[in-house]
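ugh ok fine here u go
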Amino acid sequence: MSTKTSIITVHEPESHGDFLERCREYPPFFTCTIATTGTAQIPGVSAAGASTELIPYTAAADVEAIIHGRALCLGKIPENPLGPPSPVIITMASLRRLEAPFMVIDAGNAITPRVPMLVAGRLPGAAITEPEPVTNAAELFIQGIVIGGQLSRAGHTLILGESVPGGTTTAMAVMEALGVAALGKISGSMPGNNQSLKRDLVLRVMEEKHLERGSCRERPLDAVRLLGDPMQALQAGLAMSASCRGRVILGGGTQMIAVAALIGALLENREMEPSELGFTQAEELRLLPQALAARPENIGIATTAWVSEDDAADLRGLMKQLPVPLPLYAAGLDFSASRYRNLSLYEEGYVKEGVGAGAMALAAMLYDGIDHHVMLAEIEKVYEEIYLS
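structure:
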């Protein structure tokens, strides 16, 4: 029998000691922000899809599955080339268990899913090898402020998930630009995380753009504009704005630590003139104070234990470097006893996280009092519906 703990406290500053208990004071509300980065098309960067041609469909298929129970843009939901299913099945099982409301937010996805959603950005992100992968980073941040401000009025704990294939590579790059030593420390969707390829890519791109570690710390959104993906800017604005009223859980591992680094860098520079931070438009100047009044004690991160305990990564080391301390928790999911080989491949380092899977599984455990054994049974039911029916 497994002895894995169902909820793991990975990193918890003293300022956040009761964070999860405070989250339980309000019911959960899940959002999934989808976006494209051309970085995912660079060979070896992403395994989020059965082939390179299908990677652009992954995010759309994920959110279609949440709503329709199947992918409308494809014949089936994309899976890792070796068979492990999309982590959306974990999210779906958790949403069903909690009967929680949810919303899809498009920050700039190449494929438009057939679901109701908020459209915050229409420009897919380009590859980090391009001069400016996210030309509308400031606009996305402002859109996030508006969305976060409205959602926070509903009286929920917001759980902010994402589906962005290739996003761990852009996360590494953004963290480096913000002064967080992330090379070789990120997790990803394959065993070993292809660290050397991603490290070499990020170093080469930063050299070409005349950037060094910490180059963007005083103009944080430049890190996204030059090296990131659309989700990062929107998610930062949303979390900062919503934290003024309620609790926010950033749902993910490496990618959400990059968002946390962006939030921390912005708060570090909150006394600077808006123009120095890259904001000049009237609507930006009007809304920016709402984000800079963020309450970091109301923000935490949640992922899966496959990410937090990944021997080929160092999430604890990343968390210790954040400009503003935040906690990290993990859902101790365990697929080793699964009846399905494709699920047990998660235990071998495949997929690990995505679509807010870790945060939603943790929420199911936190709010419903269930353990990882019950979660596995619920997840297997969804797996059967999606992949075996």
